[in-house]
Amino acid sequence: MVDRITDIWGTRTPFARGESWPVRVDQLLADGVGEADVDRWVQSACVLCSNGCGMDIAVKDGAMVGVRGRAVDAVNQGRLGPKGLLASWQGVATKERLTRPMIRENGRLVETDWDTAMERIVARSRSLLADKGPLSHAFYTSGQLFIEEYYALGVIGKGGIGTPHMDGNTRLCTATAAAAMKESFGSDGQPGCYTDIDECDALFLYGHNMAETQTVLWSRVLDRVTGPDRPAVVCVDPRETEVARLADVHLALKPGTNLALMHGLVRELFAHGWNDEDFVAHHTLNVEELSAAVQPWTPEEVARTCGVEADDVRRAAGIFGTSRRVVSTVLQGFYQSSQATASSCQVNNLHLLRGMIGRPGCGILQMNGQPTAQNNRECGADGDLPGFRNWENPDHVNELAALWNVDPQVIPHWAPPTHAMQIFRYAEQGSIGFLWISATNPAVSMPELPRIRKILASPGLFVVVQDLYMTETAQYADVVLPAAGWGEKTGTFTNASRTVHLSDQAVEPPGEARSDLDIFLDYSRRMDFRNKGGAPLLDWVGPEDAYRAWQDCSRGRPCDYTGISYSKLRGGSGIQWPCNEEHPGGTKRLYGDGIFPSNPDYCETYGHDLLTGATVGPQAFRAMAPAGRALFKTAPYSPPHEEPDADYPFRYTTGRTVYHFHTRTKTARSKPLNRAAPDAWVELSVSDAGRLGVAEGDIVSVRSRRGEIVVPARVGDIRSGTVFAPFHYGYWDECGSPDGRPRAANELTMTDWDPVSKQPVFKSAAVHVERVAAGAGPSAAPTTTASRPASAGSVPVTVGGPEAQAQETFAPEALPAGSAGTVSAGPVLGAAVPATTVGELS
Amino acid sequence: MKLPMYLGLLHKAEATLARSYRQIAEGHGAEPDIHFLCLTLAKQCDAHQQALQPVVARYGEVSEDDEPERLHADGLTETRSGPVGLLRDLQDLYLLANLVDITWTMVQQAAQGLRDTELLDVVGRCESEASTQLRWLTTRMKQAAPQALIAAD
C-alpha cells in the first residue's frame, strides 16, 4: 500500500525509450470493502484532470465504493492520480449534494419540484425571446459535461434559440490550446499523443507544471527519466516546481514575458541552421515573416526582458535544435499569461521548423485543463460551431442547418462567437438577461471576483445554475437545478490526446437529481423548439441517441467519431479520433503525412492577426493558397498590461495545487485531499519575505487594484519579486462570502484576455504585499510539491493517512484486451487485473 | 514636388489617430480589450511617425496644405458611453484609420515613381500595420454591432 498524498506519483516503473510503459494498476476501495465484496465493476474514465485515465468503478449495494485504473488503457496503463483515487466517487457521494430543484422566493432559495423550476425557466426564456430576441440569452458551461450534453446544448443554443452567446469555462483553461492549433494548422486537433513521451529524447514543458496538473502523465515522465536513457528536460516556469527541479534547463522567467523567450528560442534555430529546410519548404507558409519577426531576440535581449540567463536560452535552444525527437507540452503558464496564443504558436513553430510533427517521439501536446474541455470545443457548446466548422464559411453553416433541418439564418455566424468574458460584460450592461450556468463556478474561477459577484447579483439578470452542490455561484441563482454527477449517468468524453472514453452509469443519482442531458432535453421540449419540418428539434431519448447524432455531425470533419460506437468503447479502452472507415482503429498521431487541415474549404478558421485578433477573412486566406500547409504565425512581443510599480511592486500569478480540482467542489469533500491542502496561502520568496518581515505562516494582505486577500504566507522557492496564490479556494466552506476572510486568488486578478483565444490573463498582475499579523503556525500549503517551504524540515510534512492508502499491482505487460462489461460480478477481463489473478481469468 | 505635402498629411493623420486611440482607451476602460489594444495601436502610430523621420529629413515636410481642407478629420476629443456609443467611437476610429491607410498607399505610389527604396521599405512596414488596424476595428465592430443595435437598451 502506498500513501498517495505523500507519494503523489506512486512507485517508479522505469523504462527505456521505445519500450512500452510498464503496467501498474492502482486501486482504492472504501474502508472495510474488500475486492470480494464488490458486486460489479463499471467502465469509466477519470474526470479530475484532462489526462483522461481509464478507470473502473466498484459498485456494492447500489453505491460506488472504489476505483481502479484500467490496465489496458494506453493513457494510464492502470495508474490513477491522487485526485482520481480520492475524489472520484468520494467527491460526489456526499450528504451535501443538491437533491431537489430550488427557486428564489422573496429573495431566498427554496426547494420545489421539477415542473415548477423548469416552468419558471421557460417562462423567463419565452418572455425574453419575445421582447428582446435570442441575443438576450447566454449559456455558460464547463469542461465537465459529456459529449452528449454539450452537443444537446449546442443544438439548442445554435439551432433552436440562435444565440452566439455560448461559452464554457474551457475559455479559462483550454481556449488557447484550440486557438494556437487553429492558427498554425487550420483546425483544432492535438497533433501528438502520450506515447510520444515513451519515444522522445527531449521533453519541453512550457508553463506546464505537469507534476501537479496531470500527475499520471508525470509518472510516465518520471519513469522515463529514471530509466536507462533519460530524455533531456527543459522547464519554462517562474516557480521551482517539481518539473523545474528535474529539469536540465530551468528558465525561470518573469511572468508575462513568454513570447520574448519563445522568439529567442526560435531565433536560435534559424541562427544555427537547425531547421529542416525541406519540410519547411514543402509543408509550411510564411517562414520569412517568422524569421524577420524574431531577429531582434538575441539570447542577451531575451535575458534582459525575461530575467533569465542568456546561456540558458542557448542551452535550451541547443537541446531543441539537436535532439532527434522532441516532445513539447504547453499549459496555463502560457495559456493564462500575456500574448497567450502568440506564445503557444511559437511552440508549434519550433516543431514545424524542425519538421518534428506526426512522428513517434515528436509530439506537440497543447494540453487541456479539464477532463472534457476538448468536447466543449468539438460539440459547439462554446463559441465554435460543432465539428470544428468554420463560422465564416457559409457551406459549413449550411451543413449544420441541413443536419438539424433548420434555417441557416438561425445559426449565429455573422460575427465571432461571444466569449465568456464578453458574455459577462453584456450581462453587466444588461443586454443579456438570461444566463444559464452548468457545472461551473464563475463566482470563484473568473477574474476580478468583486465585479463577477456584482454581475451575478444584478436584479435584471435571471440566473440558472445547474450543479452537484450549492456553490458560491448557485447562491446567486434564481433557479438551481440538481444535476447527476460522474458515475450517475452515461456518456462519453475525450481527453487532451483525442482519446474518447465511455463512462457508464454505475449508480442512481441522489434524490431528484437528473443528468445534464435530461435537463437540456426537458428544456428543449418545454420550449417546443422545432425544426423546419415541424418535428421536435431534439427527439433524443437517452445519451446514445445524442451520441449517434453527434457522430453524424462529426462525419468528414477532423474530429470524425463515425467509427467510435458505444459498443466499440464498451470493453475496449479509449479510442483516438479521427476514427472512421479510413482509420477503423482510430488515429494515434495527426499530420504524419505533413498535410494540415488548412484547405480553405475544410479549415476551422481563416485565422487571425495574433497581436490584435483581427480576422484574416476568407479572401485573404484563400489568396495565401495554404493548400494543406501549416502556417508560421507570430506577433511582436509587447510587455504585460500591468507591470509592477511603486504602489504595487510584486508580480502576481495564480495556479493549481496537486490536491485540488477547479473550485474544490469535489476535492474538498475528500477528507485526505482536503487535509493535504485545507486552506489558501500565498507564496513569497525568501528574500522578499525577509524584506517584508514575513515569517512562515504569518498572515499577509495581498492587494491589487481590484481587491484584497488576507491569507497565511508560505516562504518558498518562488522567483524573487513574484507572488503566487492557488486559485481553488472560495467561500462555500467558510461563511459563503469573502466578507470575513477574503482568500480567493481571483479577488486580485485583472479583467483582460488574449486577443485571439480570449483566454483571461490570470498570471500577470501587480500587487502590494504586507504583513498584517503573526500566524498560529506554518501555513497549510502542501510540502510535497512546488509549494514546499524553502527551508526543509521547518514545516510538518503533508501526509494522507489510512484513507489515502492505495494498492499498486505490477502486472505483466501483456494483459488480455478483453471486455469490462458493466454488469458482471467480480473481477473483470481487461480491467485493472492484479497480476496474481491474471491466470485465473485467461 | 508635392510629396512633402503628403508626408505632412500622413504625419498629421498618424498623430491624430494616435491621439484618438488614446482617447478611446481612456474613455472605454470597462472594455479591457479595447482599452489595451488601443494603447498598443497608439504606440504603433507613434512608431510610424518615427519611421517617417529619415524620409522627411530628405524631402522635407509641408504642414500647410496648399489645397483647402474640405473634410475635417480632427480626431476624437471626447468619448461616448454605452454599447452604441462604443460602436460610434470605433466607427470614428475606423474613418481616421482609413485616412491613414489610404495616405500610406498614396505615399507608396510616389515612392514607386521615385524608386526610393528607403521610403518603400518604410511604407512596407507601416502600411501593413495600418491595414491590420482597420481589420481589427472591423472585427471588433462586427462583434459589437448586433448586441448594441438589437439587444441593448
Structure commentary:
The complex is a heterodimer of chains A (842) and B (153). Chain A is an alpha/beta fold and 842 residues long. Chain A has 4 domains: 2-89 and 811-841, ADC-like domains (N-terminal domain of TfIIb); 102-174 and 372-576, Rossmann fold, CATH 3.40.50; 175-367 and 595-631, Dimethylsulfoxide Reductase, domain 2, CATH 3.40.228.10; 650-773, Barwin-like endoglucanases (Beta Barrel), CATH 2.40.40. Helix content of chain A is 29%, strand content 16%. In chain A, helix 10 (258-272) packs antiparallel against helix 13 and helix 13 crosses helix 14 (310-322). The longest helix of chain A is centred in the N-terminal third of the chain and has 18 residues, at 114-131. Mean pLDDT of chain A is 94; it is low at 814-842. Chain B has 153 residues and is mostly helical. Chain B has one domain (3-61, 81-151): Ferritin, CATH 1.20.1260. Helix content of chain B is 79%, strand content 0%. In chain B, helix 1 packs antiparallel against helix 2, helix 1 packs antiparallel against helix 3 and helix 3 packs antiparallel against helix 4 (117-151). Chain B is elongated. The model of chain B has no long low-confidence stretch (mean pLDDT 94).
Task: Give a summary of the structure in a few sentences.
With 842 residues, chain A is of the alpha/beta class.
Number of helices of chain A: 28
Using only C-alpha atoms, the radius of gyration of chain B works out to: 17 Å
The average pLDDT of chain B is 94
Global structural class of chain A: alpha/beta
Oligomer: heterodimer
Please give the alpha-carbon distance between the first and last residues of chain A: 26 Å
Please list the strands of the largest sheet of chain A in the order they lie side by side.
7-6-18-17-16-8-9
CATH class of the largest domain in chain A, please? Alpha Beta
Count the strands of chain A? 29
Q: Unreliable runs of chain A, pLDDT <50, ≥5 residues?
A: 814-842
**Helix segment tally of chain B:** 4
Major sheet details of chain B: none
Determine the CATH topology of the largest domain in chain A: Rossmann fold
Characterize the overall form of chain A: globular
